Amino acid sequence: MQQTLPAVFADRNSIESDVWHKDIRFEKKGIYLIEAASGTGKSSLCNFIYGYRKDYQGIINFNTDNIRSYKIKQWVEIRKHSISMLFQDMRLFTELTAMENILLKNNLTHFKSKKEIVSFFEAMGIADKLDSKVGRLSFGQQQRVAFIRSLCQPFDFIFLDEPVSHLDDTNGEIMGGILMDEASKQGAGIIVTSIGKHITLPYTETLKL
Amino acid sequence: MKLLWKLLRQHISIGQLTGFFLANLFGMSIVLLSIQFYKDVIPVFTEGDSFMKKEYLIVTKKISAIGSFAGKTNTFSEDELKSLQEQRFSKDVGAFTPSQFKVSAGFGMKEAGISLSTEMFFESVPNKFVDVSLDKWHFDKESRSIPIIIPRSYLNLYNFGFAQSRSLPKLSEGVMGLIQMDIVIKGNGRLEQYKGNIVGFSNRLNTILVPEDFMKWANNEFADENKPQPVRLIVEVDNPADDGIARYFQEKGYEAENDKLDAGKTTYFLRLITGIVMGVGLFISILSFYILMLSIFLLLQKNTVKLESLLLIGYSPAKVAIPYQVLTLGLNLIVLALSIGIVMYMRGMYTEVLTQLFPQMEMSIMWPAYVAGIILFSLVSVINIIAIRKKIASIWLHKS
């Protein structure tokens, strides 16, 4: 990222940040924590990198490609194979069951077997919610379903936007374990954002937004 | 795909889609039916003379009571012919050559105990005015068979007069073509038998037409008189509605025989009426198409968040569009199939009446309806598909 800044911040005089208006690199296998107060552009950052929004200044490169020039087709491939995103608002489909939500993603990538998915559910302690409509699950349970979904694809980087905001510490730790496991299996980088409570991981770098 | 459909079918309004379905079915049926009906009926008025050059007039001199008594001739002289030839409107002029010998023709089926025989006459026009393929329109001395074009009214006379009164089978044009006539030619103290083959029917030529080469030969063989003066001319014109023609004819005292106008008027009105009906049908179709688009857009709008989420978890816009495209395509396809069914049924009803009126009419496969239906279907479907694609692309760009 070179001198990147959300367009809405452009009129601010001074920006004190480890990310905005700086040149930074995220490396594979690195584990990054981005700490931010709310309103500092944390979700914006995720959206920029995920190709969802383009209202920023500066340049964001994947390797050497400027992502601004990516076509829809390339973004679709990136979202399927390169970058996994756990959205802050999760973007689950409330009228489908937990399992259907996962399958909707996994049918696209065919990355995990049904057995693996079920074992994730068991590990996260929500095995009994497999066939419940997501709309009926609590926020914490939904967060876990969304997390499992984000693992159902190959990735170079996984972004987790406030993954544990509604989880207790035990579940947070279980999630951290699974995450480390999956990421190291693929040699991928992890980027976690947080506004306070954060998942315990052996972070290689902590950035203040 | 099943999951995708389960997710996206929410908010589908059965009422709106039914509205579209019925309206489009109604509109499409009207359009297809009017096209099919037009195509079925129009040959009765126009295509009867397909073997003649398109635009021609048959010219005679007026026969008036005084003229006949005064012994005024009604033949055309060489000069008059030349003058007509030189007119701006005429492309080509040919003379009718009458037979100078006696002809009687009969046809019958001995098995059925029917035999019709009548005194006749022949006429010929130059070959360039006749559009029958040359191998058919040729007299062969060896086989002694003469190709003949007769007025369609003769066939009607038989079908509605003779056959009706004796409860004989009605004959179509196709069957007539298979029947051979016995032709006896008398003249110069000789009497010879030939076979006649009907190769065509004419609505406009009130004569029995034989090939020019036969006429020349027969006039030589069976008559010794000099070349007869023509009483009728055939004139090929660019535009029969040219007012120059009427003026010239008036001035010279000529008459155009059974003018083309009648058939022209009928087809004009037929065209006008089917045009109006088709227009109404198209209008209904367009409106129904509009309902469909509105309904689909509303559906997309209601599902925007879901579509956006799908795009974010890696679904391509094309893939997300598929359920909606399949939905519209399916609906359009059902409408197409049903409306073709309706047209078939309706056609069955009107052909019964039509074949009663015009036994010579032969009903073919309803290509016009199929072709028009498929064109309409493809057009509507392509627009649907593109519109849905654009809408989803705009969701990708968060324009909605």
pLDDT averaged residue by residue of chain A: 86
Distance between the termini of chain A: 14 Å
Percentage of helical residues of chain B?
Answer: 40-55%
C-alpha termini separation of chain B: 25 Å
Q: Domain count of chain B, please report it.
A: 3
Overall geometry of chain A: globular
By DSSP (H or I, 4+ residues per run), the number of helices of chain B equals 12
Helix content of chain A: 25-40%
Tell me, rounded to a whole number, the average pLDDT of chain B: 81
Order of strands side by side in the largest beta sheet of chain B?
5-4-8-9-7
CATH architecture of the domain at 28-47 and 83-208 in chain A: 3-Layer(aba) Sandwich
Structure description:
The complex is a heterodimer of chains A (209) and B (400). Chain A contains 6 helices and 9 strands. Chain A has 209 residues and is an alpha/beta fold. Chain A has a domain of 146 residues: P-loop containing nucleotide triphosphate hydrolases (Rossmann fold), CATH 3.40.50. In chain A, strands 6-7-8-2-9 form a 5-stranded parallel β-sheet, with helices on both faces. Chain A has a two-stranded antiparallel ribbon with strand order 1-3. A two-stranded antiparallel sheet of chain A has the order 4-5. In chain A, α3 runs parallel beside α5. The model of chain A has no long low-confidence stretch (mean pLDDT 86). With 400 residues, chain B is of the alpha+beta class. Chain B has 3 domains: 179 residues, no CATH class; 64 residues, no CATH class; 133 residues, no CATH class. Chain B contains 12 helices and 11 strands. In chain B, the strands form 3 sheets. A 5-stranded mixed β-sheet of chain B has the order 5-4-8-9-7. In chain B, strands 2-10-1-11 form a 4-stranded antiparallel β-sheet, with helices on one face. In chain B, α2 runs antiparallel to α9 and α2 packs antiparallel against α12. Chains A and B meet through α2 and α3 of A and α1 and α10 of B.
